[in-house]
Amino acid sequence: MDLQLKQLGKRYAGVTALDAVDLNIRSGELVALLGPSGSGKTTLLRVIAGLLHPDTGSVLFGDTDATALSLRERNVGFVFQHYALFRHMTVAENIAFGLRSRRRRDRPDKATIRRRVDELLTLIQLPEHGPRYPEQLSGGQKQRVALARALAIDPTVLLLDEPFGALDAKVRIELRRWLRSLHDKTGQTTVFVTHDQEEALELADRVVVMREGRIEQIGTPHDIYRQPSSPFVYEFIGRTNSLVGHYANGYFESDGCDLRWPVDLAGAGSGRLYVRPHDLVLTDAGDGHSARITAAHRRADRTTLELNVEGQPESVELDLSMTSNATAPAAGDSVSIKPLRYCVYPLQP
Amino acid sequence: MANPMRDSMINDPLAGPRWLRWLLIAIAIVLMMLLVFMPLAMVLTAAFAKGVGVWFAALIEPDAVSALKLTLFTAAIVIPLNAFFGVLTAWAVTRFEFKGKRLLMALIDVPFAVSPVVAGLCLVLLFGANGWFAPWLAAHDWKILFARPAIVMATLFITFPFVAREIIPLMQQQGSDEELAARSLGAGAWTMFRRVTLPNIKWGLLYGVLLCSARAMGEFGAVSVVSGHIRGLTNTLPLHIEILYNEFNSTAAFAVASLLAGLALITLVLKFWLEARHGDALSQSHRRHS
Asked: Which of A70, A95, A245, B157 is least surrounded by CB atoms within 10 angstroms?
């Protein structure tokens, strides 16, 4: 079922948490709400769930206006960051809870419930864990049980609030890949909240970047990464360097260098060129911006150079792939650098 | 292989020197013996000083029986009511945001802070012959003061905080996520309470109820002010003991006292059993108290 959010607004104690948010989510989509803390992403998720009531605007599930419906009536699957499993119930009882709590006339019989629970236990790859209690499970297992519990009610939409936030790094990556494959299998419309750009980019069909209660950009992970709509998105999505300068006639000239880089900007003015460390390369003198290496950090798979760029106030970082250069340059060397892929934004006066 | 216990004792920065540890433990034990165990032993010794027959006679004497009945009657009303009010208050305080919430939190502790005698006097002020409600009560021929209603009310007031105090930290710590999850899965309010909230707080609730009942049966000050000390009618066990004692009938006084102490001991044993069996769930609530 499609989801439509129209002009949603919410204020807490004088602070705007949501500011006229419009968003359409297609049936079967996996959407990430991404943003720093305080950007309104969790508020938005809770408004969709019915955990919070918006001050303005409406939430549509398909053609039905769900704005006035309570949490209970919306039939959403909500997964909490800290699992919120019922601690005194077994895994199987947790999963069966939604079906057992239905009014008698809508309640499936016991055998049907048991079959559904078994199906879901298999789906979350914990077929033997039905009789266990939540405290006997690891964090990743708990979150999978929470997911199965939410799926048991065939929810209109699955909503996940920082679902991997409480897990350690390795489990987090495993679980998100598993969630992606689960989504490919079930086609369940899903919205999840995260502040981790890597998670959003890897997992989602579409990423919604939020900032101060507004949507800053909506796009595929590729779009968001390659064509960030603003310096905010650019900086939030990954490691960032910037060079100041000015642009005119479709070219950008950075301060301290007379080379010009083509840009897709009309008009003229001061601007800032953004480039990721792995999109910066070393080049021949005269073909790039001259710089001096101040430090070289070796890592397993790459060397990161810290550079002072001539005429630029901020130092930049450049990633050297260890396969391309047998001998990496060292601190103190003078080099020339060139951005391969970059974005230029006008500076706000 | 190193003994981990020993290592942890040596490395524990809080352990201090051995003699200090034993000294502190000894002081605690001696104090407990002097202040708690010896008086209790004295009560029992004095109660049986003239033999089991005299002890038993003091217990089945009609006034004593009626005092016991009144005490149990009061407890039977007060404990369920305060369990109910306690859960209600804890729910309101931990699940809702409202103006005056901090004031309500402070009010919960008032019965602990105020002297029971003052609490009793407040009831006199409201329901006494010259009290606020006196004309209305007189018109309807209702007797509150120096009767059972006042005794129940005084006990209700004094024992109100026990259950709420026990559950609030528990519910605060557990948060509302499980309840919200239950609602999102389609559970109604009652199903949510019965199947999620109540099982999560049940041991804390039971513990609060135990403390509440021990106090309800033992309360003296507030009840003394409002009861009127009518023998066989408005005397509870503690009041009956005082009367016997004032009449220099100390064997009977101690005999009844041993009965009261016995009731207290039953709650204490239940409490021990609860803690041994469900220490984890209980300690969660107790960590917050300290």
From this structure: A70
